[in-house]
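Researcher: Dear colleague, please comment on this protein.
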Amino acid sequence: AGEAGGITQHTAAWMVEIEGGDKKKKRVTFIATPGHQAFTGMRARGANMTDVVVLVISAAEGVQPQTVESINHARAAGVPIVVALNKIDRVDANPDMVLGQLAQHELNPVEWGGDTEVIRTSATTGQGVKELIEMLDYQAELLDLKADASTSARGTVVESRVDPGLGSVATVLIQNGTLKVGDVGLSGAGYGRIRSLVNDRGEMIAEAGPST
């Protein structure tokens, strides 16, 4: 509501932890890029820093031009796609229409004999969210995604800004190794010592490992 035109204009990042069916803790870090068609560059960057793309499609509105663009970004980045069919609780939801549109774009749903996982979700009721995270955990196992926490940190700057009180601030996704307070960070021509680390909940932390 606070952004111009009610359109999300920044890339958000946060971590979600659930207990899976096997009673083990499962954590997923989400990088949320703006859905509006004006922000194609942000979506391209998002696809390039993720392991699995979650394509969020409204069960009422269906596939939009920016959805097709996101599919192309994911393919260009060589990243697998999982579809979250959102707003499934709405009376005007038409999941079969969306499944047909996905098939037209060579994303054949598993329930139609294809290999694209489609999870029915509702941001309002919470339906399907646990199943979505379980599916991402399964994809991570399938892709054999691993990182080495003992090495120097490497990652991607999601966004950066100059804060009047804090100085240079960057939202960073750690993809390998561990970042600690006091480390020196280097990104392009910019560098500096890490004075503080703050997690997605605004809490001060001493170090950040892979996928933080």
Notes: The helical segments are 40-49, 65-77, 95-104, 129-142. The chain is about 20% helix and 30% strand. The radius of gyration is 18 Å.
